[in-house]
Amino acid sequence: MSSLNSPTAVVHLRYDLSDLPAKPGPEWTRFVCLSDTHCRTFPVPPGDVLLHSGDLTHVGTLSEFDSALRWLQGLPHPHKIVIAGNHDISLHDHDSWYDDNYSRWHRGKENTKRVRQRMQDARQVGIVYLQEETYQFQVKPDGRTWSVYGFPWSPHHRNWAFNYQRGPEGDQLISTIPKTDILLTHAPPFDILDIGRGNEHAGCHALAGRVSMLQPQLHVFGHIHEHHGALIREWTQSASPSDARTAFVNAANMPSGPMSVTSNGKVPFGRGVYSPVIVDLYDSPDAVLDV
């Protein structure tokens, strides 16, 4: 399936970069979704807003962040919003975790304050870094104000950055996610594009419950490279465009697992079935798309 459609969202998974599908109309906003780029660069389709759901780097050194930010800065999107992932090691700086664990990845300590400042300073070149915070923006001067919340945490796996234990610790963290139009998390919710190695669900039950309550218009994540893709969840059975629905996108660009190999060989990074995902959202709840 190359595209998904609902009255308020159109998702493109496969497309020709030289002949991109048009937006459904002038009142639509185009979001381009990335995740798990790990310092790699590749062609990215233009759009109004670039969303990146973490793992900008391999192991979170300042030089890797600089490289990733240079690439993002060169992309044409007027709005660029990014979060961290479990590989963005030195951004996990708010407790003693980095001090206790840096030697597993880094020969010497990174200056975490300098790394954080570099990410904050990226706003000067149009890149907004979110870490458990909300950002609001307008694509059109007289258009809707979008809200996006960034949440870098993921369930515990080998004690990487921004890991939480499933159960009370994770429940408490996830309960702080507020109502938002767009949710960026690094990890997926349980049973939504979360099949990882061993053909098992790797997503988070608590996050699934929170998303079903908040019902954002768009939820973008990555982390589980093996299940790149998208789906649209209808929260009611009504056909009304004002009723709640969520477009879920696993935007991981790093090929891994069965999807990463075709009859023509290994899928190139960020290409083919691992291309950036295009999501067009209507700016008004009163819209109806004839699909």
Defining traits:
single chain; about 290 residues; alpha/beta; Purple Acid Phosphatase, chain A, domain 2; 7-stranded mixed beta sheet; 6-stranded mixed beta sheet; 5 helices; about 15% helix; globular; disordered C terminus
Give the mean pLDDT: 93
CATH evolutionary superfamily? Metallo-dependent phosphatases
> What gyration radius follows from the Cα positions, in whole Å?
18 Å
- Helix share bin: 10-25%
Main sheet: strands, sense, barrel? 7 strands, mixed
Which descriptor suits the 3D outline? globular
What's the CATH topology label? Purple Acid Phosphatase, chain A, domain 2
- Give the termini distance in whole angstroms: 15 Å
For the record, the CATH class is Alpha Beta
Total domains, how many?
1
CATH architecture: 4-Layer Sandwich
Number of helices: 5
Proportion in β-strands: 15-25%
Order of helices and strands: EEEEHEHHEEEEEHEHEEEEEE
Count every beta strand, where a strand is a DSSP E run of 2 or more residues.
17
Strand order of the largest sheet: 1-2-17-3-4-5-6
Which residue ranges are poorly predicted, with pLDDT under 50 across at least 5 consecutive positions? 285-291
Structural class: alpha/beta
Protein described:
Helices cover 16% and strands 25% of the residues. By secondary structure, the protein is α/β, with parallel strands linked by helices. It has a single domain, classed as Metallo-dependent phosphatases (Purple Acid Phosphatase, chain A, domain 2). The strands form four sheets. The chain has a seven-stranded mixed β-sheet with strand order 1-2-17-3-4-5-6, with helices on one face. 43% of the residues are buried. Mean pLDDT is 93; it is low at 285-291.
